Amino acid sequence: MSTTHPATPPEPVTFAVMRHRWDTISFLHWPYDVDEVQRHLPHGLDVEPWDGRAWIGLVPFEMHVGGPAGPLMVRFPETNVRTYVVGPDGRPGVWFFSLDAASAAAVTVARASWRLPYFWSRMSIDREGDRVLYRARRRARQPRDVGHELTVVPSDELSDVGEFEHYLTARFTLWNVVAGQLMRTQADHPPWRLRAATLVESRDDLVAAAGLSAPVGEPIVHYSDGTDVRIGAPHRVRR
Fold this sequence. Notes:
single chain, mainly beta, Acetoacetate decarboxylase-like, 13-stranded mixed sheet, 13 strands, 11% helix, 51% strand, globular
């Protein structure tokens, strides 16, 4: 591999344009054929494989959003479908195929500013004993009957977190395209405190709705109670 994946950001955010908290977050990952995933990426981004495979993540969590200072004012469930890429400047990062959120305002702002593929969905995150239940269903005027019902059971915190876990979870660069231009945005947060987890119930349409083949087999699952995040300003990168 040409890149390494530390638990901390290689490029800290010096000035945050917004702050997030990502709570009650589960990471579900499946291996995919590199060529299949590469076909869905814009010019200038390349799949960053692990052991010769691309990896697709389905990541549900509770998002908290605030300005550069002050309290976090808004919170809502969100789920993203993503993969891992390297940009033309060599930076590894994440590419989002879709992001579903329960906040109409957040969807509108993210589509208008970052041009991210957000969808307004009915969503909930509930706990039943040691189980975490994530539900999502896209609203009208969008592809209907698309969503997920996931039940995850977190267990003990991982004492040995290796580079593969960092590859899947410690992603500090967002790649996207705005008006035909490739952009990158840096994020900064402490190392994840990852817990082992089991997926005990799963129904998902979001991966297939992104144009990918349906996941095959059981995913690799991780869970975290959450972390605080600082988001920097986006920058144009020449392809």
